[in-house]
Design brief:
Length: about 150
């Protein structure tokens, strides 16, 4: 059997489903010039060596949006292969603690209701997160004693 060396690179990504106190979710729009530019996503990013998914999510949200969040319960983990990339995307419910979201590494930010998510165009892997959000009842209660 002839194996090819065209296996796409694999990235492990943490994604935040950030809930406001009003029950809305934060989404951001990817920069037009970048990969999957103009599409909406749940914010997050690539895990660094030695970092847990939860640490990755907190760090990425601070770096990309200038916000402090509490990372709560696991929502879903998705393995998805694009033509040039394989990702393992782990999403957690998160709570906004402080800081106004800023467009540091994205073009736009919106707080939306769950039933509005279908009005935005997301990458295929993110659409699986939307389905998981809809299946999980509603905004989870986070344990405030674990928030830092």
């Amino acid at each position: 059997m002839n194996q090819t060396s065209s296996t796409p690179p694999h990235k492990i990504i943490g994604a935040a489903v950030i809930w406001s106190e009003q029950g809305q979710i934060l989404i951001d729009r990817r920069p037009l010039g970048g990969e999957m530019g103009g599409l909406w996503e749940f914010p997050g990013g690539k895990i660094e060596p030695g970092e847990s998914i939860e640490e990755c999510i907190k760090r990425e949200i601070q770096e990309e949006l200038g916000m402090v969040i509490a990372v709560g319960e696991h929502l879903t983990t998705i393995d998805h292969t694009y033509s040039n990339l394989r990702i393992t995307l782990t999403a957690h419910h998160c709570q906004h603690l402080s800081g106004e979201p800023q467009t540091i590494e994205c073009d736009e930010i919106r707080w939306v209701w769950v039933n509005e998510l279908e009005n935005f165009t997301f990458p295929p892997a993110n659409t699986e997160i939307i389905e998981a959000i809809k299946k999980s009842s509603k905004q989870p209660l986070l344990d405030r004693s674990k928030q830092q």
